[in-house]
Amino acid sequence: MADRDANLIVALDFPTSDAALELARQLNPEDVRLKVGKQLFTAAGPDVVRVLQDLGFDIFLDLKFHDIPNTVAEAVRAAAALGVWMVNVHASGGSRMMQAAREAASAAARPPLLIGVTVLTSMAREDLAELHWDAEPIDRVCELASLAASAGLDGVVCSAAEASVLSRQHSPDFSLVTPGIRQQGDAAGDQRRIVTPLDAVAAGATHLVVGRSITASQNPAATVAQIRASLATG
C-alpha cells in the first residue's frame, strides 16, 4: 500500500483493463495510489479493481454517485465491500444524500474515505451560468464544500486553484483531492482550472490526481519519481 505521505493518485483513464493493468504494472504501490473512473469501471467492472488491489494498490473509485439517498447509500456500501480506499459522491446531491452515504461508509469493516465532488474542473463561470449559478466557480465550490463537511464527509474534490481558500476554511484533516494536475509544459486537455503538482501542494491540496502527465509518459515510473522529487524539495 502507498506511503501515507505520498498522496499521488494516478488516473487510469483507459478503455480496457489490459491497458490499465499494463500501466499499473510499471508503477510501485509504495509510491502511488490509483483512480478507477467511469470509463474503465464500465468497461471492466469490479474485477479490475480487485486485480489492481491484488497488485498492492489503494484504489480511489471515482464514480461520482448522485441519486436518491438510498440508492447512493447502497452504491457506497458496495464500494466499501469491494475494499476501495476512497469513493466519491456529488455534493450537489444534498445533505440527505451525503448523510446516507456517510452512514453506509461508516458501517463498513474498513470504511473508505468518502469525498464530495464540488465543481468539475472542466467547468468555468459560463458553464455554471447555464445552470443558473451565476457565480465564480470558487463561490460554488465553497458552498458545496461546507455542505459536505456538515454532512460528515472526509473532504472534497476541487481544483487546486481553490484549495488555498478551502484549506483556510476547513480543518487540516479535511481532504482536498485535486484533479487537473499537469506537469509544467503539458497540454491542458479538457481541463479549465489546472496547476502543477508543486503549486497544488503549496495551495493546500492533500491528494493530487495526475492522469496524462504520467499515463502518456514514455516512462511512467520515472515521471512519478520526478513528481515526488519535486514535492520533496519544493
What's the short story on this structure?
The protein is α/β, with parallel strands linked by helices and 234 residues long. Helix content is 45%, strand content 17%. The chain has helices spanning 17-24, 38-44, 46-54, 69-82, 95-106, 125-130, 137-150, 160-169, 197-203, 212-215, 220-233, and strands at residues 8-11, 33-37, 59-65, 86-90, 113-117, 155-157, 175-181, 207-210.
Shape: globular
* Strand composition percent: 15-25%
The CATH class label is Alpha Beta
Number of strands: 8
Order of helices and strands: EHEHHEHEHEHHEHEHEHH
List low-pLDDT spans. 1-5
Provide the helix percentage.
Answer: 40-55%
The rounded distance between the terminal residues' Cα atoms is 24 Å
Structural class given helices, strands, pairing?
Answer: alpha/beta
- Radius of gyration of CA atoms, rounded to a whole number: 17 Å
Short descriptors:
single chain; 234 residues; alpha/beta; TIM Barrel; eight-stranded parallel barrel; 11 helices; 17% strand; globular
Descriptive account of the structure:
The model is unreliable at 1-5 (pLDDT under 50). The protein has helices at 17-24, 38-44, 46-54, 69-82, 95-106, 125-130, 137-150, 160-169, 197-203, 212-215, 220-233, and strands spanning 8-11, 33-37, 59-65, 86-90, 113-117, 155-157, 175-181, 207-210. The chain is globular, with a radius of gyration of 17 Å. Helix 1 (17-24) links the parallel strand 1 (8-11) and strand 2 (33-37). The longest helix is centred in the N-terminal third of the chain and has 14 residues, at 69-82. Strands 1-2-3-4-5-6-7-8 form an 8-stranded parallel beta barrel, surrounded by 7 helices. It has a single domain, classed as TIM Barrel (Alpha-Beta Barrel), CATH 3.20.20.70. It is 45% helix and 17% strand. It has 11 helices and 8 strands. The protein has 234 residues and is α/β, with parallel strands linked by helices.
